[in-house]
Design brief:
Blueprint lengths: L2 E7 L6 E7 L6 E7 L14 E11 L5 E11 L10 E6 L5 E3 L2 E3 L1 E6 L8 E4 L5 E3 L4 E10 L16 E9 L3
Antiparallel strand pairs: 1-2, 3-13, 4-12, 5-10, 5-11, 5-13, 6-9, 6-12, 7-8
């Protein structure tokens, strides 16, 4: 399996990060980690709650196979507001629409903020909920973070990037 390692640094940050991308998609699963402030040169309108990221290389999934994706981790910046709508909904453009209430939407997962969050929070999921991947070839991934009324969640800390980790898996049929 060939791995590509790329080092990068967020603007205004003292820290350097390494991203690993597996080139071999002939495995049964793989992960993609996205940061909300990546790809700013391509998508200058990216926000912490609505962003498009260009991957280091296109991902091509065999159209004869069934693939699913699930949100397995989300790292949110500090001071996320809490109000009547404490459920935060995560949407992605790669997946097939599904019913959420009366709407058909590309919904990945919800997470609950029942108390004021005044520090960075890493939500790790033991039980990943998987949904069907609709796109078979992609280089860009769009993520949106909304509240129950469909409005973007207003983070007070807009400098710390939001991190989203996605787990892709091939559905094995017998």
């Amino acid at each position: 399996m060939e791995r590509i390692r790329r080092r990068f640094q967020f603007l205004g940050s003292r820290h350097r990060y390494t991203v690993c991308v597996n080139r071999d998609m002939h495995r049964d699963h793989f992960y993609i980690t996205l940061f909300s402030n990546a790809s700013q040169h391509l998508y200058p309108d990216n926000k912490i709650t609505a962003f498009t990221i260009q991957l280091a290389q296109p991902i091509i999934l065999d159209p004869s196979e069934i693939w699913e994706v699930g949100l397995c981790e989300i790292y949110s910046p500090s001071t996320m507001p809490v109000g009547d709508n404490t459920n935060v909904l995560v949407y992605g453009d790669l997946i097939a629409p599904q019913f959420i209430g009366t709407d058909m939407v590309r919904f990945l997962r919800a997470f609950n903020t029942t108390r004021p969050v005044d520090h960075d929070t890493d939500y790790l999921y033991d039980n990943v909920y998987y949904v069907s991947v609709e796109k078979r070839m992609f280089r860009d991934i769009r993520i949106e973070i909304l509240n129950l009324t469909g409005e973007r969640v207003a983070f007070k800390d807009r400098k710390t990037p939001l991190k989203v980790a996605l787990h892709f898996r091939r559905v094995i049929t017998h």
